[in-house]
Amino acid sequence: MSVVDSLYVYGRFLTVSVRAQMQYRASFLMQLGGRLIVTAGEFAAILILFDRFGSLLEWNVYQVAFIYGIVNVSFAVADALTTGFDLFGDMVKTGDFDRLLLRPRSTALQLAGQELTLRRISRLTPGIVALIWASTGLDLHWTIPNAALLVASVIGGASLFASLIVFQATLAFWTTETLEMMNTVTYGGVETTQYPINIYRPWFRNFFTFGIPLATVSYFPALAIMGIPDPLGTPIWFQYVAPAIGVGVLVISLQVWRIGVRHYLSTGS
Amino acid sequence: MPQIIVENLVKHFRVSQRDTGIFGALRGLAHRRYETVKALDGVTFEIGSGELLGYVGPNGAGKSTTVKVMSGILVPDSGRCEILGLVPWKDRSRHVRHLGVVFGQRTQLWWDLPVIESFDLLRDIYRVPRHEYVKNLDEFVAVMGIESCLDTPVRQLSLGQRMRCDLAGALLHSPKLLFLDEPTIGMDAVSKVAFRQFIKRFNRERETTVILTTHDMNDIEAICDRLMIINSGKLLYDGGLDALRQQMSFERSLVVEMTDAGSPKVHPAAQLAMMNGRRVHIRFDPKRISAAALISDFTAHNDVDDLFVEDPPIEEIIARFYEGNGVG
Amino acid sequence: MALVSYWAVISARFRSLLQYRSAALAGLVTQIVWGIIRVMIFQAFYSSTTTGQPMSGRDVETYIWLGQAFLAALPWNIDTDLRSLIRSGGIGYELVRPVDLHTYWMSRALAWRTAPMLMRSIPLLVFAFIVMGMAPPATVAAGAAFMISMCAAIVLSSAITTFLNVTMLWTITGDGITQLTFGLVLIFSGMLVPLPLFPDWSQPLINAMPFRGLVDTPYRLYLGHIPASDLPQHLAHQLFWILAFVVAGRIALSRALRRVVVQGG
């Protein structure tokens, strides 16, 4: 009941946010168009490179497009839903965060609902186009386990990206320094993991597999769906459970967030 | 049993000292220096259900710290705070359900959307039953005259209209407690008067306890039964407004319209403060000479067309109270 | 006058950039990481092929590091001071200045582009040379040609920025058109993929567009991929587009001002 109610309020928050953005329709459409060109350009870059080089190590263009699709859809979802956390540092400075504390709802829920930034969804389009295009080229078998794994992978990826953004926001409870360094991990993570992780040097690959497991939640399930044995030799069962790691990290990050809120309540900074 | 019990609240803040320059910043990375500021230094009071209380003090006196503790968004170092049987910061979610807060500086309504959409969302956030919501909304619309605002985006409202809508928004869930922080700041005179009346009315009819922090002493004079003055984290005064007036043996003025211009004869216990043509201001201390005695003395020695006795404005009383208590 | 305002803006920009040292450091780290990622991706592509490519892998690496070093010189945003001026209606005061408005705005844009670029490029180039083994200019002549062409690139970027600033007089926020332009710049300047690696059939089209003058032209002069002796014709291409954007900007500005005057600001 309480979960259903929370989800309902969350949905209401998002509806209100979308309506507010629709007040500036022309500006919104232009921004959406502009972003579409940027993200489409990034995908076009992959096609251009394959046109020139034919393959990327053992990968063909469809396989890379498939991984690109999963990562970009995940990130688009996370990015759009966590705008509130991006704004959080400013909200602490202006005191607007107090307002959220004065309402009988969890602060994480209210922040997540603060804004659903529609233009950030623009990344979704090339992501979905890449997924569809790749699956026609790859002759994939859409069995129920495979379809479920794709959904799980997107959820796992979105959760992991979201948890990075939540972690970054949580730091704002302790420091007023700009935390742009964290963006390097998030955006660098997108850039990195849209290509198969085995093309990178080992230290770098390990960072995004074990350190910040962005590759883990998208790359390994993608292998299982495409039916390709991992060049790095992970077992198939691992590829199926990998997305759960993303959800796990999100749960941890929300716990850390609560510690941050408690710290805020005692310092009132 | 009182609705709010506050006992011996103490709160310190650590303020980090920033060193200037590149080397200072580097030093700051290794070792931060802090200064401790005492925001609350043993504050104690009780507030009963349905009271309308003014809470004043200079900036940084501890006003907003007290209100934050009572709102559950700040944990004190020590002391007790119980509101409706709950400890605010331990049970934040349940506590704030009975709480309405209006900040004069910041709206809680969604800037780009028609007011009614904000109200609907607040209804869902606070889980207000539908019939209660409709009843409240109808009442507020009728009393505060905000019918025409409902379909207007908040950014297009005048300040007076916006504050009325903000007040309505804070009352939609029928809170038992209402905190108002500088609600009339920046309003024009007519809006201020109207706004005070709404507060007074909701306080009376719904028995909502109201705590009003403000710098505008006219707000306090117009609606508050009780006044608390805080400075440097300590309560300096807690009581009625009239009692404060009497406690401060302030000077009053006798203003006289003379028949002819010229120096009047004034009783030695009083003093001539100002002369402006035929109009004369005489200052006196009621403890040394009563108004009646002064008037009969003055009319006996001078030709007078008209006269009246003037009280100093409430602002002056508070200012003197601050002065007398070493508030800088 | 334009020169005075150029120095005023550039020193103000420097001071405000210096204030945000941690942000500057973060930006530097971001760009280095970005460069490393992109270098690794291209290395993987190059190790997958044995056929000859229009550009060597090593050249692509240097091309990437130049791109990271001079990223801030791209026309990727609009003058936020001007934006708030337009939003607040203070633009009226700009009109009474005894200077040619387009020249003034353009010199502002030039300063706006140079200050952050100088701050970023030097430490980044030092890092790329020492740690990443970035190559020096192919020859002394190539280095000189690069410098000349890079100056033209910055002027071109400022002309485009000024044009974007002028469009704010119509759209108020200017966000949409800036995003749109930035998308085109990213793809067709060579920032995402060096232009020689684009399909052969697309080369004439890409060469005609203005955007290669921002990135591809100076970088390839640096690499000697375009011989220094070919500088004049490539410089002419850059100058042509600078002129085109200046003329377009001036026309758009005078139209917009007529409108502003008619509407009373």
Question: Gist?
Answer:
The complex is a heterotrimer of chains A (269), B (328) and C (265). With 269 residues, chain A is an all-alpha fold. Chain A is built from 13 helices and no strands.
Describe this structure in words.
- The complex is a heterotrimer of chains A (269), B (328) and C (265).
- Chain A has 269 residues and is an all-alpha fold.
- Chain A has 13 helices and no strands.
- Chain A has one domain.
- Chain A is globular and about 55 Å long.
- The two termini of chain A are 35 Å apart.
- The mean pLDDT of chain A is 89.
- Chain B is α/β, with parallel strands linked by helices and 328 residues long.
- Chain B is globular, with a radius of gyration of 25 Å.
- The relative contact order of chain B is 0.13.
- Chain B has helices at residues 21-30, 63-71, 92-96, 115-125, 130-144, 159-171, 189-206, 217-223, 241-247, 291-301, 314-324; strands at residues 4-17, 33-47, 52-56, 78-83, 99-103, 177-181, 209-213, 226-231, 234-239, 252-258, 271-276, 279-284, 304-310.
- Chain C starts with a helix and ends with a helix.
- Chains in contact: A-B, A-C.
- Chains A and B meet through helix 1, helix 6 and helix 13 of A and helix 2, helix 3, strand 5 and helix 4 of B.
Structural class of chain B: alpha/beta
Which structural class best describes the helix and strand composition of chain C? mainly alpha
Order of helices and strands of chain C: HHHHHHHHHHH
Largest interface: A-C, 41 and 41 residues
Sheet with most strands of chain C: none
| Strand residue percentage of chain C | under 5%
What would you call the quaternary organization?
heterotrimer
Helix content bin of chain C:
over 70%
Beta-strand residue fraction of chain B? 25-35%
What is the count of helical runs of chain B? 11
Tell me the distance between the termini of chain C: 25 Å
Number of strands of chain C: 0
User: How is the main sheet of chain B built?
Assistant: 6 strands, mixed
Ends distance of chain B: 37 Å
Order of helices and strands of chain B: EHEEHEHEHHHEHEHEEHEEEHEH
- As a whole number of angstroms, the C-alpha radius of gyration of chain C is 19 Å
Number of DSSP strand runs of chain B: 13
CA radius of gyration of chain B is 25 Å
